[in-house]
Amino acid sequence: MRRSITLCLTLCASLLLTADVENTDTPAKGSWDFSQQTLWQTQRAGEDVIGGIQDIAVSGDGRIYVLDAGRFAIHVYRPDGSYRSTFGRRGEETGEFCRVLMGRQLFVVENRVVLVEPGRIHFFSLAGESVRTVPIPARLRPRAFVTTDVFLSAPETGPEPGTTEVKLVLYRIPQDRETVLTTYRPYVKSQVTHRDAGDRTTWPAVIGDITPLMLVAYRRGKVFFGMSDRYRVQVVDLKGTTLFAFSVKDRVAQPIAAAFKSELIRRIGVDRPRETMERMAAGLPEQASFFSDIHVDRRGWVLLAVSEPARLSSVVFDVFSPKGRFLYTGVLAVEEGRKITALEFWRDRAYIACEGDGGDVTLNAYVIESPR
Predict the structure, then answer these.
(1) The model's pTM
(2) Residue 31, class by beta-carbon neighbours within 10 Å (0-12 exposed, 13-18 middle, 19+ buried)?
(3) Which fold has domain 19-367?
(4) Do the Cβ atoms of 176 and 151 come closer than 8 Å?
(5) Contact 14, 244 (CB under 8 A)
(6) 269-293 tens-digit pLDDT
């Protein structure tokens, strides 16, 4: 009898640990005020003007690393905003890179700055010295690092039209070994194949707030992931065991007008045939995705950046407790008329890159009040 009771309690506990937390679309505690205060801002990297910020990462001692996609370089700033150095350059050799990716490409892991591009990973010291460049299988897309030798890989979209299933994997570099954490169906409708004189080119139309993407985050042994066209985030451990999941059950996706989709495609496809651009626009969904990024802070709180394609100067966050309860919504904003291009949280700081209509780029540092 006692054994039966023990087994029952163990089963109940297991079910509770793997429960799907289903939230309504009303945050339990209302709005969260980040109390955003400007700490500093800069448009320069030494004597040079910043070309275009694609990603931001922060080291444990507070140094800010900025991936400048316009100059193919990484700028380093001290916590007080003063410029420290620049390293990296465009090229194919060790420590050089030539591809700028959508999403996360720059990381600080342990005592290394890590830059990823298709087929290889570059490792630098915190001072910017090239340490090594490691080749990886071309099919892998690093999304988060557990250690400098272990990362999570998952394609945002289908690699090719017709792809029906792809994998989220834990990949170990020294052993060249992967552990499958889950499989999922990628979105491939906006992938367009163009043939010209026998050559075949596949172009993805990836618009962050519209195209359904697989989004991934990692924090202290937990992997957070979800397709952005479904408001559900799953949490697993590094063996792929489900810990829990959370969702918002009655959120309605924002409709997207055909003319708006065509304009977005026009901006990213100026060098492509008109017919191809029309097919890319037609392949985009009729509605926005639900979220465009996953942030997990050091206390385990989860902030999902809400997808709003027409919102350029601010980001709305849905804030969830470490157990997946939808508690708050909050907003971070920059000067009206400027477009946010990258955002990173670090302790009680938010670092936001933005761009003006004239192409001028600013890195802004803010003190914020973290949700609690």
Answers:
(1) 0.91
(2) exposed
(3) Neuraminidase (2.120.10)
(4) no
(5) no
(6) 556 677 777 777 888 899 999 999 9
